[in-house]
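Today's session is about reading a structure prediction critically. Students often jump straight to the picture, but the first step is always the sequence itself: look for stretches that repeat, for charged clusters, for runs of hydrophobic residues. Only then move on to the predicted structure, which in these notes is written as discrete structure tokens rather than atom positions. Here is the chain we will use throughout the hour.
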Amino acid sequence: MKRIITVLLFVSVLLSVSCRQGTGKAEYKEAACPLFIDPVYNGSTDPMVCYNPVTKTYYMYYTSRRSNVPGLGGIESVHGSPIGIAESKDGGATWEYIGNASIDYHPDENPTYWAPEVIYANGSFHMYLSYVPGIFDTWEHPRDIVHLTSQDGKDWTAKSVLRLSDKRVIDACIYKMPNGTWRLWYNNETDGKSIYYADSKDLYNWEDKGKVTSIVTNGEGPNVFCLGGVYYMIVDEWKGLSVFTSTDLTEWTKQEGRYLIDGKEGQRRGNHADVEVVDGHAYMFYFSGIRETDPETGELVRRRGSAVYVAELKTDSEGRLYCDTNEPCMINLMADK
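Below is the predicted structure for this chain, in token form.
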């Protein structure tokens, strides 16, 4: 009798595990493509995705370029941008615009906000925002990285302007180190668009450490994440996204022979990406141009503006990171929640 009961219990456990696994697979949905287009300015760029424990949904923060405003040149349309917010209630498959972030830092008329980096730590949201003091038609103007905090992810209060290596710095990326401290990587535009970094014990006080000398690439939008026990950094080189690997988050080695989303083999070219790792899956959110099917010719036509897309990152037989944007992305950001 004991043996029969043991067998029955074992079968019951197997069935229970099988059911849970089946349910988990069923929850993965195909992501929309494009994933999201800003409904106000048609220029959603520099996306970053963060779980909001207050709403128990995911928020997407992005630079809302003024792409559809008549009369603006290309550079001018990139300035004067607010930070848009979209929300997903289905694990990242679809997103709905919910408005702009309310940011109390605007010491200059017509401020420009770029490339938000948002994390949730110690009971508060923290945003590290690239700030430009006005609207310009050239790139030769100062930029700062500003630290703001929020309790709900929507209303933001400025805490400080970070004292970094230069007065033309953009594109913050924050990652928690194994020892519990925080590291910030950013783009120093004066030094040939090089990647620099700074360290902090509390997210408020930062010590600049200078240039990441092992990254010889000139690029922007650094993004750091861990997948399968390996640290990765993705950098936008304007011809695709380059990949670096590290074992200590200090020394980096470039992945040769393969760029992510380089515009070849039928793929759209990817720009300024953010990666969210959930339950062993690495989802890369990036922006690219908008292409629509012409109803008369059936051909893909480029229209002005930018859209956010998502693709799952994987490793090939040689251990190199890659993704295929021609394949649908099955996503569930809530899989570990």
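Discussion point for the tutorial: Residues 54 and 224 are 25 Å apart (CA to CA).
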